[in-house]
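User: Please predict the structure of the protein below. I'd like the answer in structure-token form so I can feed it into my own downstream comparison script.

Assistant: Understood. Taking the following sequence of 90 residues as input:
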Amino acid sequence: MLVLTHDHTEDLILCDAALRHGELGTIGLIGSRAKWLRFHKKLVDLEHPASAVERIQCPIGVPGIEGKHPGVIAVSVAADLLQTLSQVRS
């Protein structure tokens, strides 16, 4: 599951729901490292174990590919998804 909205409140609600679902293979959240630190605290405050919260990947995309332009993010996320699918199939 990828959380890609423009609203931090909605992102938090979706991350909370994804963790409560319990059967999702991977969860990714678009955002900065600072956003992730805030979300991690809020999700733990919502009584998710830290180990469960740490399943969420944020920022998403291939490490080392930097940029905030939507096209850069899209290509980086697509490449990361392809890598994940390749690992799952192996």
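That's the full token string. The longest helix spans residues 70-89.
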